[in-house]
Design a protein that fits this description.
Blueprint (H helix, E strand, L loop, with lengths): L4 E3 L2 H7 L3 E3 L3 H6 L7 H19 L13 H8 L3 H4 L5 E3 L1 H7 L14 H14 L1 H4 E2 L2 E6 L4 H6 L3 E3 L3 H6 L2 E3 L3 H24 L9
Antiparallel strand pairs: 1-2, 3-7, 4-5, 5-6
Length: about 210
């Protein structure tokens, strides 16, 4: 599931005028339905709300007297993004996500290894090709994928624009032969630069320097 997305009930959809929203959109939507009250009443309400908020957000100490930290948060914080920022990096895709990508018009069915940019482009094409089914025009920042193959691959019913990179990266597996591939690319570049240098100096491989 996606705990950051609120799927509206019929009543809530009527109030907010949208089928789904991200939690960071809640504040502005709620404020749009609030009527200003007299200053003293507002002050009393704020005091009560602040007290309640502090109670809810206080962490229970563990046996060592330190706040408890979720192991999943630690694991997420330690994940390296080096593989996704390396332009030479190549990836395979998890089976369900690969099946989604393979439905993109013009996709090469023999391709099994991708760059990060290629996956991004193919996912964008997939979403845009189904925009009428996947988006509520009242909130185009949220993609509604419940019942869609993409939702099954991502394991969510909806996601916000700010979440798409994380969901996509979870479907990408670094290709194990990347070091070999990088070496081949660098060797090809070196040979090309050497050939260009020899040509500019008028030398060939059969010529010797006296």
């Amino acid at each position: 599931g996606n705990v950051s997305i609120i799927l509206c009930s019929p009543d809530l959809e009527e109030v907010f005028n949208m089928k789904a929203l991200h939690v960071k959109q809640v504040r502005d939507l709620v404020l749009s339905h609030i009527t200003k009250v007299p200053d003293q009443s507002l002050q009393d309400l704020l005091t009560q709300s602040t007290s309640t908020f502090r109670t809810i957000t206080t962490n229970e100490p563990n046996n060592q007297g330190e706040p408890t930290v979720s192991p999943s948060i630690i694991r997420t914080a330690n994940n390296s993004t080096d593989a996704f920022t390396d332009k030479y990096a190549r990836f395979t895709l998890k089976p369900m996500f690969l099946k989604v990508i393979q439905t993109v018009p013009g996709f090469d069915p023999t391709q099994e290894v991708f760059t990060y940019e290629e996956v991004t482009m193919l996912l964008s094409k997939y979403i845009l090709s189904r925009k009428d089914q996947l988006f509520d025009k009242r909130n185009i920042l949220v993609c509604l994928v419940g019942g869609d193959p993409l939702g099954e691959a991502f394991g969510v019913k909806a996601f916000h624009k700010c979440q798409v990179n994380g969901l996509m990266r979870n479907q990408m597996v670094p290709f194990k032969t990347v070091p070999k591939l990088r070496k081949e690319i660098l060797e090809t570049m070196t040979k090309a630069m050497t050939a260009q240098t020899n040509t500019s100096t008028g030398r060939t491989d059969n010529q010797k320097i006296c």
